[in-house]
Every structure is written in structure tokens, then in C-alpha cells.
Amino acid sequence: MSSPIYVAIDTPDLARAEELAKACKRHAGGLKLGLEFFNHNGRDGVMRVAEHGLPIFLDLKLHDIPNTVAKAIQSLNPLTPAIMTVHASGGRAMMEDAKAAAPTGTKVVGVTVLTSLDGDDLKAMGMKPDPSAAVERLAGQAKEAGLDGIVCSGQEVAVARKSWRDGFFVVPGIRPKSASVGDQKRVMTPGDALHAGASVLVIGRPVTGAEDPDMALREIAATL
Ligand SMILES: O=c1ccn([C@@H]2O[C@H](COP(=O)(O)O)[C@@H](O)[C@H]2O)c(=O)[nH]1
Q: Is 5-221 a domain of CATH 3.20.20.70?
């Protein structure tokens, strides 16, 4: 069975991204490329990394009016990422149009509450200080809009999966026990997140910052 781990290759440097793709390709289930990479390297850069053979998660977290998001997705053609993201807070119509615009076979998932935010951050934004309630609400909207799943932290995935049994749950904010948390606030260990119901674990710095990323991946895999 292929690994549930997608390695977040957060760099604008194409050569470094390819080096990481090569290093991770034996023990990762996929590679995640985000805005930092895409803004610098565009579709051609994504194709270069995809040539290393792993499924690509294109994490652009689109958030705009429905027409603009749909056109942005169509403009990715000919890319056919395995997974891509929009913000669930963009609303139901935006999510419906995003799914309709995506290539067949690409899973479109809605980012609920960023894992770098906690209850105090939500309160400061004028929201209820309860990430779990916000995730549940946004997950419901994503499901109704026809998305394939959501992005949430490991702390909410069990509750979200209860009302979306066949949903696809992407979980970042993953930290092996000894790893530094950095800017993440809602974190969980890889084993606990998988046990709670994650479909995919997104792991960046604990792998890419290691001297030997392949060894770091294997050590994490051994805890699953
Ligand atoms: O809520 C979210 C959504 C996306 N991410 C992305 O996942 C990785 C996490 O990287 P680490 O180095 O393991 O912290 C990163 O690319 C984020 O953009 C997230 O962390 N939280």
C-alpha cells in the first residue's frame, strides 16, 4: 500500500524541489507544492517535479469569487494534480464552481481553519473561539458543494469524519514527538492523526529540514 504521507516541498528553488523529490520518492505517497513554488516556477515547474513519478498535491488555496476561482483552475490546464485546494470559507457557490472546473480525477478539497490558528486567533477575527465547530460547519458546506473532502488539523478529523464517512481528509500540522512546532498551533503526531481518520498526512519541515529526508520519512513511517 502506498504511503499516506505527502511531503510539502516548500521552496521557490526548482533545483532544490527536484532534489527533495528524488530523495523522497521511495517512501512518500506524494508531493505537495504550494504558492511559494508555483509563483516562482509556474506550470512548467510543477510538470518538472511531477516527472519524478509521485502524485502531486497543488496547494494554491484559491479564495475569490466563483467565476475567478473557476477560471484560475481552468488556467492550470494541462496540469492534472491528484489533489488541489480552495478555501471552504469562499462559500458554497465558489466550491461548486471550483469542483466543476477541475480536471476529472483531481480531488478538490476545502481548507477549513488553517492549522496555524487557534481559538484566540479566531476570537481576534470576530469568530467563535472554537476551531472544531468552525471545521464542522465548513466541512458540511464543502460536502454539500460536492467537494471531495477538506483540510483540517488532526484535532478535528475524527469529528469531521463522523458526518462524512467517505470524505477525503487532508491533515497538515503533523509533528513527530520530538519535532519543533514552529508556526503551527493545532498539531498532532502522524500516528494519532492517521488513527483519528486522516486520509493523507502533509509533512513539510520535519522531513525537508532533516539532513537525510528519506531517513526522516522512514522513521515517521515506522510510527504509523
Ligand atoms: O491548514 C493548513 C493548510 C495547509 N498547510 C500547509 O501544509 C504544509 C505544512 O508544512 P510543515 O512544514 O509540516 O508545517 C505547508 O506547506 C502549509 O502551507 C498547513 O500547514 N496548514
A: yes
